[in-house]
Amino acid sequence: MYQPINIGTKFRIIPPGHPPSTCGRIDLVMQRGAFGSGEHETTVSCLESLMDMPEIGGARILDLGSGTGILAIAALKFGAASVVCVDIESQAVETARINCRLNLLDQSATHINGTLAAVTDTGFDVILANIYGDILLDLADSLTAKLKSGGTILLSGILWEYNFDVRNAYERRGCEVIRNRMLDEFSTVLLKKY
C-alpha cells in the first residue's frame, strides 16, 4: 500500500480500495507493481501535459509503451473515447488490464502485447509514447504514419542528449513542436502533425 500522490492540479494516484477524492481531483487507481505507480518524472510530465490538451476529449488514442496503463487511464478519465495500449512486456500488459478494470475502464481500452507493428489501426487523434529516445528515433516514420493529420503526439522518456535529434526527426516528418519541456534527466515533447 502507498500513500495517495497528487499530480499537478487535477490528478491523484491512489491504491486500490482507497476512499475516492473529495477535493475534485480525478482519481487514478493504480496497483503498484514492477512498473511503479506513476511517480517517475516522465510519467508526471505526461500527466501534467494531458491536463492542458483539450483534444483528449472524444479522441482515439494510441499509448505505446503503456506500462501500467496510467496515461491511458488518465486520458480516458479526461474524456478520450478509446485507447489502444501497446507494450512489449506481457507483465506490463496484464498490469494495465488490471488497472483499467480497477478504474472501470476496461471496455474502453484495448491491450496489445507486442510492438508498434502489431497495431493495424491508423488515424489516431493522439499518440502517447513514454519510451526511450533512441526507440522514438527508430519509430519516427511508423509512429507519425499512425497519427492523423492535425493529430497530436506526446513523446517522453527522452534523455536530454536525444532531445534535439528526436525533435528534428519528427519535424522532418511533418510535425511541429508545440512544447519542449526539459526535466531533471529526461524531456517531454508535444508535437502536432500537419
Salient structural properties:
3-stranded mixed β-sheet; 7-stranded mixed β-sheet; alpha/beta
Explain how this protein is built.
The model has no long low-confidence stretch (mean pLDDT 95). The strands form 2 sheets. The chain has a 7-stranded mixed sheet. A 3-stranded mixed sheet has the order 1-2-3. Helix 1 runs parallel beside helix 2 (70-77). The chain has helices at 41-51, 70-77, 90-102, 133-138, 140-146, 160-171, and strands spanning 5-7, 11-14, 26-29, 60-64, 82-87, 109-113, 124-130, 147-159, 175-182, 186-193. By secondary structure, the chain is an alpha/beta fold. It contains 6 helices and 10 strands, in the order βββαβαβαββααβαββ. Helices cover 29% and strands 32% of the residues.
How are the elements arranged and paired?
Elements: E1 5-7, E2 11-14, E3 26-29, H1 41-51, E4 60-64, H2 70-77, E5 82-87, H3 90-102, E6 109-113, E7 124-130, H4 133-138, H5 140-146, E8 147-159, H6 160-171, E9 175-182, E10 186-193
Helix pairs in contact: 1-2
Describe the structure in brief:
With 194 residues, the chain is an alpha/beta fold. The chain is built from six helices and ten strands.
